[in-house]
Design a protein that fits this description.
This protein is of the alpha/beta class. It is built from 11 helices and 8 strands. The radius of gyration is 27 Å and the shape is elongated. The protein binds a DNA duplex through helix 2 and helix 4.
DNA sequence: GCTCATCATGAACGACGGGT
DNA sequence: ACCCGTCGTTCATGATGAGC
């Protein structure tokens, strides 16, 4: 069976295609189309199960009503929850989301950007990875709508939405310090992301502010894609090498999980020993 | 003859294929 | 090598008829 087009509906209803278009797009008032005719057109369209040809709509309007979302990873709590909200808001406004991930690989990030571009998406939401600067800049130069999420490029004039890394870490540190801990370690990763750097800076700033001797000696930096076991071992060694530690701050939730494993392996008790 | 309501006409969108 | 029609849809503009 042939796909029913707007023209078919028009022929069946005995009106012109434009009339059908206006009615189905809710512009019958604006176009002064009588209520009776509008109802008739709607009835025919529903009966025939008419669905607009999105390719043609895009061709005509220049809009795809699709937004591209590039996140760090599709799995995981943070980006999963984020995507859910974004999808919901997009849906409210008649947009759909194409969803892909970079795994913090700039090559893959660029590949995804090109894919989205070829798919004619109307806008981009991107969690930036170092190495994507040129491509993002190109989008901005081309006046494409771009929003960066959970990170930004200082030199690129694109709007961004961030977690308040500074306030979050500061609040956490203040809590530990208020509880009387003074030898606080910091475990982070060596990835070049602004949010990670900000967290480390906030950690150091908190120590400095409370005159607890801000130094890098109590900072452990793991490789970003650290092996699970190796990471746990490294944290164990870090704790053993620094017996003066009475508290540890983990820069990310996955580091925290590894850290809990390490602490358990060392048979230390929380919060008695650490 | 004029105004208003009501609906139709036709061009345009971008890429591709077929015809000269 | 170039032009032109094709797809389905949208929208500015035009056309028709009714009522005064």
């Amino acid at each position: 069976m042939k796909k029913i087009s707007l023209k078919d509906i028009a022929a069946l209803a005995g009106v012109s295609p434009s009339t059908v278009s206006f009615v189905l797009n809710g512009k019958e008032k604006q176009m002064r189309i009588s209520e009776d005719l509008a109802n008739k057109v709607r009835a025919v369209a529903t009966k025939e199960g008419y669905k607009p040809n999105q390719v043609a709509v895009s061709l005509r309007t220049g809009q795809s009503k699709i937004l591209g979302l590039i996140v760090e990873s599709i799995g995981g709590n943070f980006f999963g929850a984020l995507a859910k909200v974004i999808e919901k808001e997009a849906d409210k406004n008649g947009y759909r989301i194409v969803y892909c991930s970079t795994e913090n690989d700039p090559v893959k990030g660029r590949e995804m950007l090109r894919m989205l571009s070829n798919s004619q998406v109307d806008g981009y939401m991107i969690t930036p990875v170092n190495g994507m600067e040129k491509d993002v800049l190109e989008l901005v130069k081309a006046k494409k709508p771009v929003v960066l999420i959970d990170g930004y490029f200082p030199d690129i004039p694109a709007p961004y939405v961030l977690v308040n890394n500074l306030a979050g870490v500061t609040q956490g540190m203040n809590h530990l310090i208020a509880k009387g801990y003074s030898k606080i370690g910091f475990v982070t990763v060596d990835i070049e992301l602004v949010q990670i750097r900000e967290r480390e800076q906030a950690y150091l700033a908190a120590l400095k502010k409370h005159k607890l001797g801000a130094s890098r000696k109590l900072i452990l930096t793991l490789e970003y894609n650290y092996d699970k076991e190796a990471g746990v071992k490294a944290i164990c060694k870090f704790i053993k090498d620094h017996p003066e530690l009475d508290a540890i701050f983990f820069a990310t939730y996955y580091l925290g999980i590894s850290g809990l494993q390490s602490i358990q392996d060392l048979k230390l008790r929380i919060p008695k020993d650490l």
